[in-house]
């Protein structure tokens, strides 16, 4: 590990304007581009507690103040935010998708900070635009496989249902892994759809009873396929992450997720990452924002 002048993230990160023509980034470097998705509409449609629209702002405050311990060939950029200021979630998701596609075109890794979990469908559409179909690794108390609403409208509960239907229409495989599932937060109908789509999952109780066991992650990386990580902060115990729409009294602890993120990063298969459902209005002493920041820092330095 190379000491980058003992700098903090706010000293290392550079601004980047994805609306400008960018010819290329250095080929011999690892590039990560941060972009916020400021949106409450998906959570609102899912009848949750709004507030995640401010999540990326509070995340940045916590993240930028952390000391950076990165390899010397790592480059980090901030591309600003995509805003959903109306009920038109779909247009905001399309704009996010365009930016994600641009980031991929630059041979960089998108890091999207939500926003509710509707962020994931915008993120995935950007990957699909570039003809990528990565394995989805979701750390989440919920499957988020709810059917779309009337008019085929999505919500924070539908992103992976939308992905499964899109891939089915394209005659492509839907490879979905969900870690931290809470039985009491998912109906039998959702479990049935998970089984019908061959979704692989770990219950939160199993993780809590086997917190050192990363064999499920080994199973994913053994396939040697590209990976998209999506991390919903409601997967954690409410004491660790109170600042979410649906806090979990029996959620999982952070060491399992940190070790899983490190192992996934070290596989060199991760092409995209997002962290979602940070709701500052429900947070206590910025506890959840600080957790989210620490998770990304651990991922980047792995």
Automatic annotation (TrEMBL):
Q: Which family does it belong to?
A: Belongs to the arginase family.
**Top EC class, one word:** hydrolase
Could you list this entry's UniProt keywords, alphabetically sorted: Histidine metabolism, Hydrolase, Manganese, Metal-binding
| Keyword check for Cell inner membrane | no
UniProt-recorded name of the protein: Formimidoylglutamase
The gene coding this protein: hutG
One MF annotation (Gene Ontology) recorded for this entry: formimidoylglutamase activity
* UniProt xrefs under Gene3D superfamilies: Ureohydrolase domain
């Amino acid at each position: 590990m190379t000491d980058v002048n003992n700098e903090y993230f706010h000293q290392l990160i550079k601004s980047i304007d994805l609306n400008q023509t960018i010819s290329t980034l250095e080929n011999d470097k690892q590039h990560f581009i941060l972009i916020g998705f400021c949106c409450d509409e998906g959570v609102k449609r899912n009848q949750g507690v709004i507030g995640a629209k401010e999540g990326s702002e509070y995340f940045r405050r916590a993240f930028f103040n952390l000391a950076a311990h990165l390899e010397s060939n790592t480059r980090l950029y901030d591309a600003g935010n995509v805003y959903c200021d109306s009920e038109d979630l779909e247009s905001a998701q399309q704009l996010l998708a365009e930016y994600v596609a641009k980031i991929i075109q630059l041979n960089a890794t998108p890091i999207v900070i939500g926003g509710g979990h509707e962020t994931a469908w915008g993120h995935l559409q950007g990957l699909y635009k570039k003809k990528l179909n990565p394995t989805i690794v979701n750390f989440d108390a919920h499957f988020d496989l709810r059917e779309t609403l009337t008019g085929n409208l999505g919500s924070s509960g539908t992103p992976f249902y939308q992905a499964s239907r899109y891939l089915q229409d394209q005659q492509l495989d839907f490879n979905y892994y969900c870690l931290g599932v809470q039985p009491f937060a998912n109906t039998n109908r959702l479990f049935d759809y998970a089984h019908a789509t061959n979704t692989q999952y770990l219950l939160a109780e199993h993780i809590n009873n086997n917190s050192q066991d990363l064999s499920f992650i080994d199973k994913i990386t053994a396939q040697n396929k590209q990976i998209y990580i999506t991390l919903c902060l409601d997967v954690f115990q409410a004491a660790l992450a109170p600042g979410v729409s649906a806090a979990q009294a029996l959620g999982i602890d952070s060491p399992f997720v940190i070790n899983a993120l490190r192992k996934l990063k070290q596989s060199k298969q991760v092409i995209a990452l997002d962290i979602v459902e940070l709701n500052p209005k429900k947070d206590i002493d910025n506890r959840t924002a600080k957790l989210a920041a620490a998770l990304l820092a651990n991922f980047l330095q792995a």
